[in-house]
Design brief:
By secondary structure, this protein is mainly alpha-helical. The chain is about 75% helix and about 0% strand.
Length: about 325
Amino acid sequence: MNLSRLRPSPQTIPLFASVGVLILLYLGGCIAFDHFGSLRVLINLFGDNAFLGIAAVGVTFVILSGGIDLSVGALVAFTGVFVASLIGHGLHPLVAIPLALAFGAGFGALMGTLIHLFALPPFLITLGGMFLARGLAFVVHPESLSIDHPFYGEFVSQTLSLQISRKLSIPFTAFALIVVVIAATMLARWSRFGRNVRAIGSSESSARLMGVPIGSTKILVYTFGGFLSALGGIVATFYMQSGNPASFVGLELDAIAAAVIGGTLLRGGVGFIPGTLVGVLILGLIQTLIIFQGSLNSWWTRIAVGGLLFVFILLQQITSRRRA
């Protein structure tokens, strides 16, 4: 029996490490706090972080291609207030939501086109996209705008939720996150688009020699990222029942952190969509642990995430050298 086949590859070591951290955090919370291991806490972990997870999946695709997207948080906020404003003006949510998704995809396509046609740095283009989307959100409505519609209050919150018991149900936001992760995993692993994205992220010059359509793939990556950011904004409206132009500042950094903690290399070419979900759950678990502890400031979440990022970036560097 060849034991070398049982050893994890250097690419998957960060993923296994993130799964180990998730398990340790969860077990530690169950030991330290009563009711931490309850089904309600587990369901809330998925439902409360659904919009971040969906946006982080889009960011993972962008990083896999060797790029970066800093417009995520602003686009999520814009989508929320855009949908809330359209509904407030009498438009049905089933009309407002496709319009918001189309805008998000178009916004991403515009950034991808600029990056490809003019060979501009993704950091600068998406930074400009961040300011543009945030400004447009305040133009649409300068403050928080609540959503009062039966589609939100009854259909999504009740009909599309799975009732487990009289007091406990699985929200639609949790289902949306799981569906997006499964679909994105299949797209990244078994589609030609996913293979092209990884090839460009690994080596754009080699991908060009292999006949990979560099331009269209890059544009599609940012289009898909913008679409998922808009979808994350819509899921956020289901969660908050409102839209706020000042919300989700720094969400793009949380999404990038979740992808890195989940095993995605910042230089591109290597990444795992389920790993991104694990990273999102780790961020959510840290925040839940601080809430259960009660006496710690919420900023300790950032401190813990920063420490984890240092560890996982160092682990990526070590495993990359071993692979080389």
